[in-house]
Amino acid sequence: MQKDKYIGMELDKTRNMLQRAFARADLRIRLDKATNKNSWIISYLAENTDKDIFQRDIEDKFSLRRSTVSTMLTLMEKKGYIERQSVDYDARLKKIVLTPKAAEINRQLLEGITASEEQMRRGITDEELEVFFAVLAKIQKNLE
């Protein structure tokens, strides 16, 4: 094992750099103070408007605990980002639906994500990206 490089430390350092880059881009202020995780949930919901998405789907997609997602969704509802709507086929279930406010946030997010992805991918080949994502998938699997 290489003693001067640790996966966890490098991932944490990269996360910190990403947060600073988003802060420099002033995205947090423009997005009505939406948190990073809220932003990912908004994007996920926007990409899946053709499906009924429930709390369990968000838990699974982002590997978050039920209590965490419940708290996040409650706050997102208070901020006016989402609505919980009943479904015809099961009275116990409430699907999560974006509001127009969140749709605008998503539009702005996509602009920021696109610019950020372009910056991060600069000078990296498709083959290198393929290896990078394969290694990340293995790390995630090891941590399950």
Indicate the CATH class of the largest domain: Mainly Alpha
Q: What structural class do you assign from the helix and strand content?
A: mainly alpha
Query: Into which percentage range does the β-strand content fall?
Result: 5-15%
Q: Segments where pLDDT lies below 50 for 5+ residues?
A: none
Helix content: 55-70%
What is the first-to-last residue Cα distance?
Answer: 22 Å
Domain module count: 2
Mean pLDDT: 87
Spatial extent as radius of gyration: 17 Å
Number of DSSP strand runs: 2
Major beta-sheet overview: 2 strands, antiparallel
Strand order of the largest sheet: 1-2
SSE sequence, one letter per element? HHHHHEEHH
CATH architecture of the largest domain: Orthogonal Bundle
Q: Which outline best applies?
A: globular
CATH topology type of the largest domain: Arc Repressor Mutant, subunit A
At the fourth level of CATH, the homologous superfamily of the largest domain is Winged helix-like DNA-binding domain superfamily/Winged helix DNA-binding domain
Number of helices: 7
